[in-house]
Amino acid sequence: MKISFIGAGRVAYHLANALYPQHQIVQIYARTQAKTQILATMLQAEAIESYQDLSSDIDILILAVSDQVIAEVIQSIPQHLHDVLIVHTSGSTHLEVLSNVHANSGVLYPLQTFSLQHEIDWKNVPVFVETQHSNDLKKLSELASSLTEKIYHYSSEQRLSLHLAAVFACNFTNYCYDMAQQITQTQQVDFDLLYPLIQATAEKALCNIPKNVQTGPAMRGDQNILHMHTAMLEKQGQEDFKQVYQLLSEQILKRHA
Amino acid sequence: MKISFIGAGRVAYHLANALYPQHQIVQIYARTQAKTQILATMLQAEAIESYQDLSSDIDILILAVSDQVIAEVIQSIPQHLHDVLIVHTSGSTHLEVLSNVHANSGVLYPLQTFSLQHEIDWKNVPVFVETQHSNDLKKLSELASSLTEKIYHYSSEQRLSLHLAAVFACNFTNYCYDMAQQITQTQQVDFDLLYPLIQATAEKALCNIPKNVQTGPAMRGDQNILHMHTAMLEKQGQEDFKQVYQLLSEQILKRHA
Lengths: 257, 257
Known about the structure:
- Two copies of one chain form a homodimer.
- The first copy, chain A, is of the alpha/beta class.
- Chain A has ten helices and eight strands.
- In chain A, strand 7, helix 5 and strand 8 form a beta-alpha-beta unit.
- The longest helix of chain A has 31 residues, at 156-186.
- Chain A is elongated.
- Chain A starts with a strand and ends with a helix.
């Protein structure tokens, strides 16, 4: 297929590199000229400098832009792309944001955390597709099948819930690692020592219901340790972490009461 | 060495099974007779029914009991064990809790999350040793070396900080998975779909400073998504999760401002 991209950030980078060279990447347009140029060179695509330069001789236009600007970007697509299927890649944006403006619209959402330093193991990435028109679903699913076999037809509501769950399972989890790293740092203790524990915790969640493998002082209802820990955080001036400690411990206590 | 155990729970189970048969497990005493009997049979040890029956002809007595009862248990050890090295296995209990009562005391703390369903990969488990008397440190380190090569001589203060960090990196992380699982459940979305994301998030934390790989709406400062998510949680009646969402998002915003 012939694919063009709006956006040259992390999602565009990984997605375009996974589609190329099986598919032809025709054009790339993004606000940051330098990034656009680098990505276009990698993919033998044309870097364009204006929406007006977008060619309509493509199968799918992928908007791999941040959630905040999707509504603005779809308004900027010129009229001559009227018949082109345009999809966004956001987990948390309703299809309506596109379909209210552009009839042939859809969503291609890869559920993965993208950072430029890490390769994506695409065959394990679930991809969620949704289209306004049923005849577009076949085309979009076909494109998705060149990324992964794990293709799901999810409604916007389901996708939004899944994305919300991912914020808890991924973003908040990483912040828990971040807080742990900061605690070890203040006490000259080595964060690396927690690696086996971090791995084991993730592995256990993957072969159990997380509730059933909960451990720790809050789960055991050990008030002595809970008090000692909040006192330690207070003494170290880590007021923010103390608030997190108290809120999560309270909820874990309640859940396992 | 000749080892006896007080306790027959998860830590005692995994630790005793890792030490046996290289070391002789002499006796096991625990409140739950049935559990004690099963463990004793596995390890060809004697299940005893009273502290008074503890033999003093051992090298180390391991108190693998819950943090709350360590202080009580050390008070119950009969006088004829005066010269035996007695260690606890807790990350969050100061050595003083033992040494104030029993001179030959120490700590053997394996930093791992123990559940009966999962085998422990001991060679990757860091073990922290501490003793009241320096001549006991050699003996305890020798025992620890039959579990792992990763032996650390940590003070009680360092060990307590590490354990506090582990609560964030492990217990709170698991609760994040738990909340995610509950969110998917209410929306008839499949929690399994989050597995690759959970794995990728843990892997990234292991080869980076967690702060540098933070992603998500709070990190991007995306107020639209933050509002949408809190509204979704409110609508679904998940008031507790909304509180967690708001507190963690606020802190992530501040950390990446």
